[in-house]
Amino acid sequence: MDKFFNSLRSMPLRRGPGRMLGGVAGGIADKFGWDISIVRIVMLLSFLLPGIGIAAYIVAWLLIPAQDDSIILQKWLRGF
């Protein structure tokens, strides 16, 4: 499992510093140089789709590393 999480850490995407919930929108906006408000609006609109938007956000929140390279799912699997 460590190999999987290390490969996630090697990606240039991180949960963002401008966090409202999990920092996923902030990370996407920071990575691509987009306005965070636009990313949040698109994410909110995707939540109107039956289950897809919310499920995708939760998966991203669990798997995208934070600024300190911590991954929530890895912490949960190790028992913090």
What does this structure look like?
It is a single chain. The protein is mainly α and about 80 residues long. About 60% of the residues lie in helices and about 0% in strands. The protein has one domain (about 1-80). The longest helix is centred in the C-terminal third of the chain and has 12 residues, at about 50-65. The radius of gyration is 13 Å and the shape is globular.
Low-confidence stretches: none
Whole-number count of domains: 1
Give the CA-based shape.
globular
Termini separation comes to 15 Å
The pLDDT mean sits at: 85
Main pleated-sheet profile: none
What is the structure about, briefly put?
With 80 residues, the protein is mainly α. It has helices spanning 2-9, 24-32, 36-46, 52-63, 72-78. The protein is 59% helix and 0% strand.
Main attributes of the structure:
globular, 59% helix, 80 residues
Set out the fold topology.
Layout: H1 2-9, H2 24-32, H3 36-46, H4 52-63, H5 72-78
Helix pairs in contact: 2-3, 3-4
